[in-house]
Write a structure and sequence with these properties.
By secondary structure, the protein is of the alpha/beta class. 39% of the residues lie in helices and 21% in strands. It has a domain of 143 residues: Rossmann fold. A 5-stranded parallel beta sheet has the order 2-1-6-7-8, with helices on both faces. Strands 3-4-5 form a 3-stranded antiparallel beta sheet. The C terminus is likely disordered.
C-alpha cells in the first residue's frame, strides 16, 4: 500500500482505532519525528492526549539508515546483539551518548516549562510510528512504556517489516498495521508519496496544537488535513 503522506496514514489508523474514541482511559504516544504527525491525527480523532516517547535510533557505522539499536530517555538501550558484537565498543558508546544528547535537546524544544506528560499508569496506550523497519526504536519505546505500568498497549503503524513484528508482539497487547508485513518494500519511505523529513519545530507545533485542542475541548471544527 502506498500512502499520500503521514497525515493520510494517521487518518486511516484512527478509523481502525475508532472504538477507543472518547475513552477516558486512552492516551496516544508517538515516536519522533514522523510518528508525531501520524499520532496527532489519531489523538485528535480519538479525543485523547498526545505525548511523545523521546527515543533515538543508533545506526550502523557504515549505513546510517540501518538501526542496530535504540535508546529511550532515562532507559537502557535496546540492541541487535548480533550486529553490536562486531562493532567497536568505544564507537558504540560514543553513538549511544550522541543519541542521549539528541534526546535531551529535543526535550528542550518539544516541551514547555512545567510540561506534564500524559499519564501512562493504568491507561490504554496507543503507541504510534509512521512505519517500522528494524523495530528497535519501537522496542525501546515499548520498554519505556511498560516500565510505567500501562493497562493495555496498542502499537499502531502504517507499515512494518516481517522481521520486526515478532518482538513487538511480545511486548504489546495489540498490533495494528494498515498494510500486511509481507508487502513491506524495504524502507518505510517507499510507502509514502510524500515523505519529507519532519523538523523538531514541526513536532513542537503539533504537540502544542493538539494540547490546545484538548484543553479547549473543541468538537465542532476539526483541524484541516493536508492530503493534497
Amino acid at each position: 500500500m502506498i500512502y499520500l503522506n503521514r497525515q493520510q496514514a494517521g487518518i486511516l489508523l484512527a478509523e481502525r482505532l475508532s472504538h477507543y474514541k472518547e475513552d477516558g482511559d486512552v492516551v496516544v504516544y508517538a515516536l519522533p519525528r514522523g510518528g508525531v504527525v501520524v499520532g496527532a491525527e489519531i489523538a485528535e480523532e480519538l479525543g485523547c492526549p498526545l505525548g511523545v516517547i523521546l527515543v533515538r535510533k543508533i545506526s550502523h557505522p557504515f549505513w546510517a539508515e540501518y538501526a542496530i539499536g535504540a535508546v529511550a530517555e532515562h532507559d537502557r538501550p535496546v540492541y541487535n546483539l548480533d550486529e553490536v558484537s562486531t562493532i567497536n565498543k568505544d564507537w558504540l558508546k560514543k553513538s549511544e551518548n550522541t543519541a542521549r544528547l539528541i534526546i535531551q535537546n529535543r526535550r528542550k524544544i518539544y516541551f514547555p516549562k512545567g510540561y506534564k506528560a500524559p499519564p501512562i499508569k493504568d491507561k490504554i496506550v496507543v503507541l504510534v510510528d509512521d512505519g517500522i523497519a528494524t523495530g528497535y526504536t519501537m522496542r525501546a519505546a515499548l520498554h519505556y512504556i511498560n516500565k510505567h505500568h500501562p493497562k493495555y498497549v496498542v502499537v499502531a503503524t502504517a507499515v512494518a517489516s516481517l522481521d520486526s513484528i515478532g518482538p513487538i508482539k511480545d511486548y504489546s497487547d495489540r498490533l495494528v498495521i494498515l498494510d500486511k508485513p509481507k508487502n513491506f518494500l524495504g524502507t518505510v519511505g517507499l510507502h509514502f508519496k510524500e515523505f519529507e523529513q519532519v523538523s523538531d519545530e514541526e513536532v513542537e507545533e503539533l504537540l502544542r496544537e493538539v494540547s490546545n485542542d484538548a484543553k479547549q475541548n473543541q468538537i465542532a471544527a476539526p483541524r484541516q488535513h493536508s492530503l493534497a
